[in-house]
Write a structure and sequence with these properties.
alpha/beta; about 45% helix; about 15% strand
């Protein structure tokens, strides 16, 4: 994990203000659960003791990343907060016109899941039988239009004030592709969020891509090699552990996806822990190898309680609930860990990932 900073000449990166501590952000995917990340970023924006050097995002995390970076570039921290709220509100408005809605029973029982929704059950069944090339031959995806209207990608590529790393999985090679800086456009983000059972693969430069979560959820290594700060804040959306055994087909399928998506993060964390141990023992030269400080903001118990169907719940009440949980979780993390940023990790990698 040698450190080799890479700062493209066209980046107008924000300079730390006074004693502000630089961090990088690693944003996981998770469908509508990405609204939790919205809340975390909303709170971190208000913390003037932090500066943002780079953001790595996958799937919903990549959408949060580009919207946040766009708002930050155009209007500073207030612009980032406004851009995030506008984006998620538009997601909710688009969801109102779709067939998948909470039933009166789910509303009455205050359940965020869509397990009793006939449309959800029907769609879930169809996607296990037919491919998106059969179900959606015109490849309609309202997220593309929303992103294209809410994010000025041309300006983002030209003036972005943070380094961006968007992860996607090459369908044919199985390799992870990181779209950096002036490579980031709406196609890159849609590739990063392309669930293969729901959407056709996204073709970029002759290669087909699926969701980046299969090879990096999110990818940490660009933040190590291409950023100067050793502090990485992972915004965790997908729970690492589960208290119950999945029994329904949907629960089993979802847990397999969670394990698969978390596996890449766990491998990177194990590598970081190994290199850190060698540096601390003097087996590696600390001048040539970068000692990383890993931080994690997540509400694992809250996320465990949500069913897989809630990832498609675009109800505004649900999205703002997750936003508020994200803000509260970020507030708790800041109050107990801000002083440790730049000094040491605030997550026990050995206990969490090994």
């Amino acid at each position: 994990m040698a450190h080799a900073p890479r700062t493209p000449s066209n980046r107008k990166l924000l300079k730390p203000r006074g004693d502000a501590k630089p961090i990088t952000l690693a944003l996981q995917g998770g469908g509508a659960h990405g609204a939790f990340t919205w809340g975390v970023l909303d709170r971190l924006c208000e913390e003037t003791g932090l500066e943002f050097e780079g953001i790595s995002g996958t799937s919903a995390g990549s959408m949060n990343a580009v919207v946040f970076a766009h708002g930050l570039t155009v209007g500073g921290r207030d612009g980032a907060k406004e851009a995030m709220e506008t984006f998620w509100r538009r997601i909710s408005e688009a969801g109102k016109t779709g067939p998948i809605q909470r039933t009166p029973w789910e509303t009455l029982t205050k359940s965020w899941n869509l397990d009793h929704s006939p449309a959800y059950f029907f769609l879930d069944t169809l996607t296990r039988i037919f491919s998106p090339y059969q179900l959606n031959p015109m490849n309609v995806n309202p997220l593309r239009e929303i992103l294209g209207e809410e994010v000025d990608f041309e300006r983002l590529r030209r003036e972005c004030s943070v380094k961006l790393f968007i992860s996607a999985t090459n369908v044919q090679s199985g390799k992870n592709r990181i779209f950096r800086d002036d490579e980031v456009d709406v196609d890159a983000v849609m590739a990063s969020a392309c669930l293969p059972f729901m959407f056709q693969s996204v073709e970029i430069d002759g290669d087909a891509y699926w969701d980046g979560g299969y090879m990096g959820n999110p990818a940490i290594y660009p933040l190590i090699y291409d950023c100067r700060t050793p502090d990485v804040v992972i915004v965790q959306v997908n729970p690492l552990t589960l208290d119950t055994i999945p029994k329904t087909a949907a629960e089993i399928f979802n847990r397999l996806n969670e394990i698969n998506f978390n596996s890449t993060l766990m491998r990177e964390m194990r590598a970081i822990a190994f290199v850190t141990k060698l540096i601390d023992e003097g087996a590696l030269d600390g001048d040539h190898y970068k000692r990383m400080n890993i931080h994690m903001i997540g509400a694992e118990e809250e996320m465990k309680a949500l069913g897989v169907s809630s990832k498609l719940n675009a109800d505004w009440a649900f999205l703002t609930h997750l936003r508020d949980v994200g803000r509260e979780t970020a507030e708790g993390w800041l109050s107990g860990n801000l002083e440790k940023v730049g000094v040491e990790s605030t997550v026990d990698i050995q206990d969490k990932f090994l």
